[in-house]
Design brief:
heterodimer, A: alpha/beta, B: alpha+beta, five-stranded mixed β-sheet, 27% helix, 11% strand
Chain lengths: 506, 207
């Protein structure tokens, strides 16, 4: 049986938890015998450690707990607060996207689930310590770094920000809360990259700050944005509109912003016969060509999408050699049999373009990195692709040898398939990993020996002076944040430092 | 017939033992399969090949509502649907990814996501039915029935554009409300996990 077929053989309806979830349709006696077999360790539960509490971790935990009836999940998170990029990545003005937290909360309410926050596996608690105490470890810690442009001036000039840092800053991510971006030095902003993060930043810069005051954006970010002088935002990509990574919803939101105009895109960047395009690119093309209904003359702010431009150099100001004054791009042209295909590539063309700006954001993608101690568990990290090597279903495989699996080691989310896609993609991806785990457990594939999980590790964490935060603790932090937001008409006012988060518990 | 007789008994047992959580706790001392539920002979939902009747579905439905009330988390709110008034029942059939049919009688105004979730069908609704994701994607089986629905708006179409396995008659379940015209509606649930092929993972990543 192929792997693809196998992966589909797990629980038909994992939501029907009022009856014991079945991993397979085996006759009952087979299941009973299995419970006495070696693989199930004489009725001991299936213990899984999950590293990371974002959508990848929670959706995988959910499906594993629904598919394996005695699965116990310990979810480790380096911050005292859960939800990963749902809390720190999703734009504050997209509260509906955060509704998936309801599902995560439902998962966390299970007695078979433990949240272990404020424990940094790898830095605080050695990864190798986990090995003795679990049957499986799921790596779902996402992409913790971002990619750099590698052009002159990027590291030395003021006014150039990583999109990841900026998003973390306005969302209250402790490590970037002190970013203090300077939005007051000029009216121009250039965003390099054309994914949804780039459009989130454009929208944040262009939206009336009074609209954002009703969101959970941090107060200090609102204060900075209210003093922003930015009026024109360029979102620059090295390929064309048919290759851009943004999705139509985010484009439509920007086009519908009141008092914000949009510079028309040159029609030659689109195929001549739009009617023949598949539905998704067709709708996007029609929207981009239609543009904004706000005419430039009556607009207070404007934005544009600039295509086929490769970052070449940041220029310093003549007044202060530390300040950014402009950015130069070299021109690209599309090549290939179909220049309008989403996978079309570019090659350098003649010419350059220089945009004066004192503010630039680098938004060309996130990047995962390995956790300290992974090597000791026999896990490689694919530096080139920025992922943990795996078989496509989340079974971690070796890079060096013939790609054999490493027993009990799984991954899901961005660290499995790369930093792209919306929460729905991560959910699909997490479910496929969970199905692989359930299938492997069911078919008695080798796992780690298992143990007592967090109950056994807690004393080691104590000895190392680590302070763990459980779900009840998080609920106190959660309640305190919502209370802080009440007076301001915000859903919550986040604590932007670990110290303040823990302060609620003292 | 044995199975039919066992269903009410099994449901009653389930009501007695249900825990205030969606995840029942099992342990070696409390083996779930053999003892409490008696589901070996009367498993519900029925296994593939067994058709369940509307009456069965209604029993199950009233049960699933009872169960939901034990839930304390907000998401469980999706499970609260008022039963249709006698004589005003609308029929809807969900065909899951294994091809199994699930028929329900529902009230006017119920949307397909709420119905599926209250019936514990495999439909996620990650954004809570606010038309901000594509996880409640359904495919309307019959084109004529699709045409009877109000046109999807831009927001819904924007999300459908991201749905895996999009078809000409795709809709978001959260946006389709039942009405008399849609009585007898049949929708298919697409697979939620992509059936990966080796070629999807050859390392040929787009740059």
């Amino acid at each position: 049986m192929s792997i693809a077929r196998q992966a589909l053989c797990v629980s038909r309806n994992p939501l029907s938890s009022y009856l014991p979830p079945r991993v397979s349709r085996q006759p009952i006696y087979l299941i009973q015998r299995r419970q006495n077999s070696h693989a199930v360790k004489d009725g001991r539960p299936f213990r899984m450690a999950v590293l990371g509490s974002g959508p990848a971790g929670f959706y995988t935990a959910y499906k594993v707990m629904s598919s394996i009836e005695n699965a116990v999940v310990d979810m480790y998170e380096y911050l005292p607060v859960p939800y990963g990029l749902v809390r720190f990545g999703v734009a504050p003005d997209h509260p509906e996207v955060k509704n998936c937290q309801d599902k995560f909360e439902e998962v966390a309410s299970s007695p078979r689930f433990n949240f272990i926050g404020n424990i940094n596996v790898g830095k605080g608690l050695p990864l190798t310590s986990l090995r003795e105490h679990y049957n499986a470890i799921l790596f779902a810690y996402g992409a913790t770094k971002d990619r750099k442009l590698g052009v002159p001036g990027e590291d030395s000039l003021k006014g150039i920000y990583s999109a990841r840092h900026f998003v973390g800053w306005y969302n209250g991510l402790p490590e970037h809360a002190a970013l203090a971006p300077d939005l007051g030095s000029g009216e121009e902003a250039v965003i390099i990259g054309q994914g949804n993060v780039a459009l989130d930043i454009a929208r944040t810069l262009l939206t009336d700050v009074d609209v954002l005051r009703k969101t959970d954006m941090t107060d200090y970010a609102l204060a900075t944005l209210s003093k922003s002088r930015v009026k024109r935002v360029r979102v620059v990509g090295r390929r064309g509109p048919m290759q851009a990574a943004f999705t139509i919803k985010e484009v439509r939101e920007l086009l519908n912003l009141p008092s914000v105009s949009f510079r028309h895109i040159d029609p030659f960047l689109f195929p001549s016969n739009i009617a023949k395009l598949p539905r998704t690119p067709k709708r996007l093309t029609q929207l981009l060509l239609k543009g904004s209904s706000t005419p430039a003359v009556s607009a207070q702010k404007s934005w544009s999408l600039d295509f086929l431009l490769l970052p070449k150099q940041f220029h310093s100001s003549s007044a202060d050699s530390n300040d950014l004054s402009a950015m130069t791009f070299s021109k690209n042209s599309l090549v290939g049999p179909d220049a309008f295909d989403s996978s079309a590539r570019v090659e350098p063309a003649d010419g350059e373009a220089t945009f004066p700006t004192s503010l630039a954001f680098r938004s060309i993608g996130y990047k995962s990195e390995p956790i300290d101690g992974m090597k000791d568990l026999g896990i490689d990290f694919d530096e080139r692709r920025g992922i943990i090597p795996n078989d496509g279903y989340g079974r971690i495989t070796s890079l060096s040898s013939d790609g054999t699996g490493i027993p009990g080691m799984y991954c899901s989310g961005w660290v499995k398939r790369g930093p792209a896609g919306v929460i729905a993609n991560t959910m699909e991806d997490a479910f496929s990993t969970a199905e692989a785990i359930a299938k492997d457990w069911e078919s008695e594939q080798p796992f780690m020996a298992g143990g007592q999980g967090w109950d056994a590790l807690r004393s080691e964490a104590d000895q190392r002076g680590l302070r763990s935060v459980d779900w009840a603790d998080w609920k106190k932090i959660d309640a305190a944040e919502m209370e802080r937001g009440k007076g301001k008409g915000k859903p919550r006012e986040k604590f932007a430092s670990i110290h303040d988060m823990l302060g609620v518990l003292d | 017939m044995y199975i039919a007789r066992q269903i009410p008994r099994a449901l009653e047992l389930c009501r007695q033992v249900v825990q205030p959580t969606i995840f029942p706790t099992f342990s070696s001392k409390n083996p779930p399969l053999a003892r409490s539920y008696g589901c070996e002979t009367s498993s519900w939902p029925p296994r593939a090949g067994q058709r369940r009747t509307l009456r069965d579905a209604e029993e199950h439905r009233s049960y699933s509502r009872a169960r939901r009330r034990f839930c304390t988390s907000p998401v469980a709110m999706h499970g609260h649907l008022d039963p249709p008034k006698p004589g005003e029942e609308l029929r809807v059939t969900f065909i899951d990814k294994e091809g199994e049919e699930h028929k329900f009688e529902v009230a006017k105004g119920d949307n397909l996501l709420d119905i599926a979730q209250s019936e514990d069908l495999e439909m996620e609704g990650a954004c809570g039915g606010s038309c901000a994701c594509s996880t409640c994607h359904v495919i309307v089986e019959n084109e004529e029935m699709y045409d009877k629905m109000d046109e999807p708006d831009d927001d819904e179409n924007d999300m459908l554009d991201l749905a895996f396995g999009l078809t000409e008659t795709s809709r978001l379940g959260c946006q389709v409300k039942m009405n008399e015209e849609l009585d007898g509606l049949r929708v298919k649930l697409p697979s939620m996990t992509r059936n990966l092929q080796a070629s999807d993972f050859s390392g040929a990543k787009k740059s």
